[in-house]
Task: inverse folding
C-alpha cells in the first residue's frame, strides 16, 4: 500500500526512536503482505464450504476487502446449491446495506428467488438501481403475483412504447398488459409510430394488424415510404395521393434526405408545390434537406436554411447550430451576426457562439465591439478561450488554481469511510473493478466540498484516469495540474525525440484517447495509450524500419507511444504541419480528413474545425487543442501562442 505525501507530520527523530520505527514498520509491512496474499488466494478460488470462514485469522477478518471475500464465498455456495447460502446472503446484505460488495450477490440471489417464484422474498431484496433489465421484468412478475396496482400497467405500457424490444423475461408481464384497459388502439398506435420513427418496419408492421381499419392508412403509407422512399416521394412530387400524415411525411423524408442528399435537394421544390404542406411541415422538410448539405459543406445549404428561417417557426438546436456553420463556411458574416443574435439564451451564452459572434463583428470591421467579447472569453478554460486569444494576437494563459488538495478535514472524513479503505486496498492489488465501485461509493458518501481531495489522492496513487474523471465530474476545470497529469514522462520524451512530435501533442492525444490507461482496448480493437489498431501499428513500424509489434506488445507504453507518435508525425507531414488536420485524420481516418478539406479556396482554421461534420471528430480536435495548450503551459510555464497551430486549411494538393 503506497504512502501518501503529507500523510505524516514531520518531526525530528532520535536515532533509537528511528530504529524502532523502522523495525515496527517492517513488521507491519510483512504482516500486510501476508494478509494480502491470504486474501488474494482465497478470493481467486472462493470456497463453497460454509465452514471456510471458521479458519480465517483475525487479521484477515479485519482486512478492508474481507467483505468481498465473504461475498465471493456466498456466490460459490449459491452456485453449489448449499442450503445455508440464501440465509447467509440475506444476513450479509442486511449487514452491508448498499455497499458495493453486495450488488452482484444481490443480483444472483434475486435470479434464484425468481426461478422458484418466491416473490415476497424477491421484492424484499429488490433494488431498482441494479440496472438489470431482465430482473426488472422479473420484478414485474413479482408485483403481479403479489397484487398489481393501476400504476404498474401504465408504467409497463410506457416502457413497451419506448423500447425496441423488452427482454424475454417480460413475456408474462406483456401478456398481462394486453388484458388491461390501458392496452387500447391509442397505445398500439403510439408503439407503431415510435418504431416507424426509428425505421423499424419489422416491428411496426404486425402492430398495424391490431389497429382498427380507420387508424391504419397513415401508418401504412408511412411504411410504404420506408420500404421504397425514392419511388414514393417521386410519386408524391407528381401529385400522387397518399394518406400519410405530417409526422410520417417529416420522419420518412428526413431519413430519405440524409441518405440521398442530392436527389432530395432536387425533388424538394416539386414536393412542396404538390403537397402544399403547413408552414411548420414545409420548414421541417426544408431543414431535412439542408442539414446533409451543410454536413457536406455544400453552398446550397445556406439558401435552404434561409428559406426555412422565413417561416418564423422555432428551430431546434441542431438546425440553429448548423445554419450558423453553413454561414461561417460561406463567409456570410452578416448572416452569422444576425443568426447569433437570434439564438435562444441557452445557446447564446455558450463560449462557442459568443466566440462566433465576436468573429462576425471582427470580420465586419467592428473590432471595437469584438475585442471586449474576445477578452471575456480568454478568461475561460475552454477551446474558444484559446481561439479568442489567437484572434487578439495574444498568448493565452489557462486560468488555474489548485483545488485538488488533501486537507485535515478531508483526511479525517475519508478515514471514517470503510469504502475509502477498500478502494485504496483494491487499487493497491490492482483489482480495478472493485476499486472503481468502492471509489464511487466514497465519492457519493463524501461531503461535496471535500470531494476535490479525491482528485489529488487518485493522482498520488497513479490512478490517473480516475483523477481526471473525478475532477471532471465536479467541474474542476480550473485546476490544470490535477486535470492534466503527465504519466509516462520518460516514454513520452523518447517518443517525441524519435518522431519529432512535440510532447504536448502526445500527452494531449493520450489523455483523450485512453485517459492514460495502458491496457485500454476500444470496441474497434484500438489498443493502449494512443489507441493504435494493430494493423496501423504494423504499417507505421514497417515505414519507419521498426520491429512489427504483436498485439500484446501494444499494451507496453515503450512500444505504443513511439508508434503512435510516429503515426501522428506522418499525418502532420502529410498535411504540411497542419496539426488540426492530423488530429482529424487520427480520429476519423485520413480519407475522411481529406474529404473535409475545402474545394473552393482556403478556410481559416477555426471555420474549418467548426464545420467538421462528425460531432465526435469536431469535439476531438477542439479538446486536443485545449489539452495541448494546457500541457505546453505546464511544460514551459509560459503563456501559449497557438497561431502556429492554426494555419488556414487549403484544398487538397495545395501547399
Result:
Amino acid at each position: 500500500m503506497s504512502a501518501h505525501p503529507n500523510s505524516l507530520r514531520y518531526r525530528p527523530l532520535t536515532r533509537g526512536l528511528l530504529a524502532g520505527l523502522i523495525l515496527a514498520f517492517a513488521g507491519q509491512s510483512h504482516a500486510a503482505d501476508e494478509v494480502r496474499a491470504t486474501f488474494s488466494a482465497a478470493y481467486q478460488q472462493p470456497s463453497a464450504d460454509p465452514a471456510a470462514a471458521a479458519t480465517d485469522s483475525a487479521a484477515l477478518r479485519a482486512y478492508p476487502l474481507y467483505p468481498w471475500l465473504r461475498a465471493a464465498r456466498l456466490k460459490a455456495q449459491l452456485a453449489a446449491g448449499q442450503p445455508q447460502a440464501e440465509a447467509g446472503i440475506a444476513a450479509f446484505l442486511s449487514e452491508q446495506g448498499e455497499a458495493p460488495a453486495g450488488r452482484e450477490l444481490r443480483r444472483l440471489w434475486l435470479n434464484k428467488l425468481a426461478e422458484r417464484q418466491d416473490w415476497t422474498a424477491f421484492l424484499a431484496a429488490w433494488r431498482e438501481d441494479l440496472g438489470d433489465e431482465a430482473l426488472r421484468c422479473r420484478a414485474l412478475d413479482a408485483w403481479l403475483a403479489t397484487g398489481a396496482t393501476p400504476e404498474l400497467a401504465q408504467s409497463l405500457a410506457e416502457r413497451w412504447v419506448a423500447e425496441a424490444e423488452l427482454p424475454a423475461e417480460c413475456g408474462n408481464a406483456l401478456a398481462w398488459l394486453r388484458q388491461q384497459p390501458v392496452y387500447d388502439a391509442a397505445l398500439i398506435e403510439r408503439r407503431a409510430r415510435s418504431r416507424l420513427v426509428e425505421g423499424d418496419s419489422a416491428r411496426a408492421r404486425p402492430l398495424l394488424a391490431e389497429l382498427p381499419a380507420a387508424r391504419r392508412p397513415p401508418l401504412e403509407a408511412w411504411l410504404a415510404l420506408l420500404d421504397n422512399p425514392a419511388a414514393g416521394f417521386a410519386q408524391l412530387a407528381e401529385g400522387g395521393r397518399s394518406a400519410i400524415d405530417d409526422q410520417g411525411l417529416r420522419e420518412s423524408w428526413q431519413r430519405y434526405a440524409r441518405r440521398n442528399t442530392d436527389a432530395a435537394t432536387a425533388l424538394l421544390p416539386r414536393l412542396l408545390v404538390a403537397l402544399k404542406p403547413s408552414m411548420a411541415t414545409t420548414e421541417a422538410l426544408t431543414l431535412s434537406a439542408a442539414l446533409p448539405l451543410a454536413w457536406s459543406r455544400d453552398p446550397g445549404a445556406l439558401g435552404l436554411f434561409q428559406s426555412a428561417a422565413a417561416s418564423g417557426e422555432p428551430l431546434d438546436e441542431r438546425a440553429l447550430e448548423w445554419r450558423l456553420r453553413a454561414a461561417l463556411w460561406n463567409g456570410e458574416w452578416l448572416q452569422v451576426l444576425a443568426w447569433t443574435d437570434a439564438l435562444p439564451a441557452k445557446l447564446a451564452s455558450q463560449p462557442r457562439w459568443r466566440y462566433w459572434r465576436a468573429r462576425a463583428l471582427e470580420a465586419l470591421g467592428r473590432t471595437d465591439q469584438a475585442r471586449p467579447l474576445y477578452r471575456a472569453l480568454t478568461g475561460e478554460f475552454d477551446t474558444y478561450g484559446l481561439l479568442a486569444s489567437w484572434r487578439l494576437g495574444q498568448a493565452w494563459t489557462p486560468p488555474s488554481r489548485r483545488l485538488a488538495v488533501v486537507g485535515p478535514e478531508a483526511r479525517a472524513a475519508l478515514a471514517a469511510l470503510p469504502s475509502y479503505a477498500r478502494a485504496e486496498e483494491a487499487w493497491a492489488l490492482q483489482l480495478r473493478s472493485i476499486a472503481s465501485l468502492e471509489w464511487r461509493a466514497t465519492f457519493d458518501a463524501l461531503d461535496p466540498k471535500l470531494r476535490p481531495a479525491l482528485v489529488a489522492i487518485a493522482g498520488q496513487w497513479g490512478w490517473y484516469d480516475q483523477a481526471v474523471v473525478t475532477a471532471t465530474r465536479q467541474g474542476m476545470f480550473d485546476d490544470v495540474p490535477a486535470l492534466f497529469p503527465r504519466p509516462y514522462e520518460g516514454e513520452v520524451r523518447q517518443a517525441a525525440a524519435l518522431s519529432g512530435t512535440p510532447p504536448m501533442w502526445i500527452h494531449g492525444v493520450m489523455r483523450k484517447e485512453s485517459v492514460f490507461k495502458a491496457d485500454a482496448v476500444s470496441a474497434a480493437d484500438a489498443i493502449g495509450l494512443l489507441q493504435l489498431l494493430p494493423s496501423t501499428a504494423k504499417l507505421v513500424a514497417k515505414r519507419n524500419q521498426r520491429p512489427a509489434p504483436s498485439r500484446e506488445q501494444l499494451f507496453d507504453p515503450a512500444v505504443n507511444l513511439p508508434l503512435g507518435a510516429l503515426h501522428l508525425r506522418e499525418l502532420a507531414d502529410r498535411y504540411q504541419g497542419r496539426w488540426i488536420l492530423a488530429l482529424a485524420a487520427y480520429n476519423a481516418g485520413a480519407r475522411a480528413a481529406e474529404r473535409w478539406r475545402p474545394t473552393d479556396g482556403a478556410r481559416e482554421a477555426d471555420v474549418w474545425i467548426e464545420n467538421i461534420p462528425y460531432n465526435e471528430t469536431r469535439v476531438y480536435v477542439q479538446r486536443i487543442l485545449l489539452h495541448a495548450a494546457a500541457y505546453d503551459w505546464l511544460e514551459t510555464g509560459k503563456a501559449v501562442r497557438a497561431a502556429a497551430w492554426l494555419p488556414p486549411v487549403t484544398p487538397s494538393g495545395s501547399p
About this structure: Residues 1-27 have pLDDT under 50 and may be disordered. The two ends are 56 Å apart (CA to CA). DSSP finds 37 helices and no strands in the chain. The CA atoms of residues 411 and 504 lie 33 Å apart.
